[in-house]
């Protein structure tokens, strides 16, 4: 598995890179955001382990750039800030997982492996359609009534789960597990924020229904 480790603490980066290579991973290292963007522009990684607190171009900016460009890697953000709000902020940027420092090395390895499996997993049907909404899951392109929709990775994920449900109710827990991080609690606002933004971008008439005490459906 090809992994990019972006960490400005040189000694820590070296130790982690050596350990991950010992796990059979092919690891490249960047110590700042600019170098991370150079490496991702030149190569495709399965997982990017991204420190949020980087000099120069921040980890947040790197994450936004990768997500907005459709870069296919799964992103695991690392940070010294471990509050729930910090976790939600990182995931709202488009990261796939979030790990607060200090962390257990074995947990880091487990999460990278889990993200790597998701990166290579076969997807559902290539094109999903319902109520005038069309989602090409292979190219990650969405439209409503032939109008292109500029959606983030998380918004695309929510839309995909709702379309796959084919009118059925999708719970907040299911959205967290399939689009975000199974370690998050249902009380997080990440799902609510993403659904709000997705509703706004889908436009009128409204398509996403909130089912009180249960979840959402299209």
Ordered list of secondary-structure elements with their pairings:
Layout lengths: L1 E5 L3 H13 L3 E5 L2 H10 L4 E5 L7 H10 L5 E6 L4 H9 L4 E4 L4 H16 L6 E4 L2 E4 L4 E4 L2 E3 L3 H13 L4 E2 H8 L10 H13 L6 E3 L3 E3 L1
Parallel strand pairs: 1-2, 1-3, 3-4, 4-5
Antiparallel strand pairs: 6-7, 7-8, 8-9, 10-12, 11-12
Helix pairs in contact: 2-3, 6-8
What does this molecule look like?
The protein is α/β, with parallel strands linked by helices. It has 2 domains: 2-120, Response regulator (Rossmann fold, 3-Layer(aba) Sandwich); 127-217, Orthogonal Bundle (Arc Repressor Mutant, subunit A). The protein is built from 8 helices and 12 strands. It has helices at 10-22, 33-42, 59-68, 84-92, 105-120, 153-165, 172-179, 190-202; strands spanning 2-6, 26-30, 47-51, 74-79, 97-100, 127-130, 133-136, 141-144, 147-149, 170-171, 209-211, 215-217. Strands 2-1-3-4-5 form a 5-stranded parallel β-sheet, with helices on both faces. A 4-stranded antiparallel β-sheet has the order 6-7-8-9, covered by helices on one side. Helix 6 (153-165) packs across helix 8 (190-202). The protein is elongated and about 55 Å long. The model has no long low-confidence stretch (mean pLDDT 86).
């Amino acid at each position: 598995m090809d992994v990019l480790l972006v960490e400005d603490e040189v000694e820590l980066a070296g130790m982690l890179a050596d350990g991950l290579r010992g796990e059979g991973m092919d690891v490249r290292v960047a110590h700042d955001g600019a170098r991370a963007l150079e490496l991702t522009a030149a190569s495709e990684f399965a997982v990017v382990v991204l420190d949020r607190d980087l000099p120069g171009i921040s980890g947040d900016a790197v994450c936004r750039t990768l997500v907005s460009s459709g870069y296919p890697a799964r992103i695991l953000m690392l940070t010294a800030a471990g509050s729930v709000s910090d976790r939600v902020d990182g995931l709202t940027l488009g990261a796939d997982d979030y790990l607060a420092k200090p962390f257990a090395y074995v947990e880091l390895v487990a999460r990278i492996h889990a993200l790597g499996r998701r990166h290579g997993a076969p997807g559902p049907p290539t094109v999903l359609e319902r109520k005038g909404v069309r989602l090409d899951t292979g190219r990650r392109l969405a439209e409503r009534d032939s109008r292109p929709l500029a959606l983030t990775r998380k918004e695309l994920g929510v839309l995909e789960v709702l379309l796959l449900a084919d009118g059925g109710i999708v719970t907040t827990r299911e959205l967290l597990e399939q689009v975000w991080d199974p370690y998050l609690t249902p009380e997080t606002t990440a799902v609510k924020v993403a659904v709000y933004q997705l509703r706004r971008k889908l436009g009128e008439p409204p398509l996403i229904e909130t089912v009180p005490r249960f979840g959402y459906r299209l």
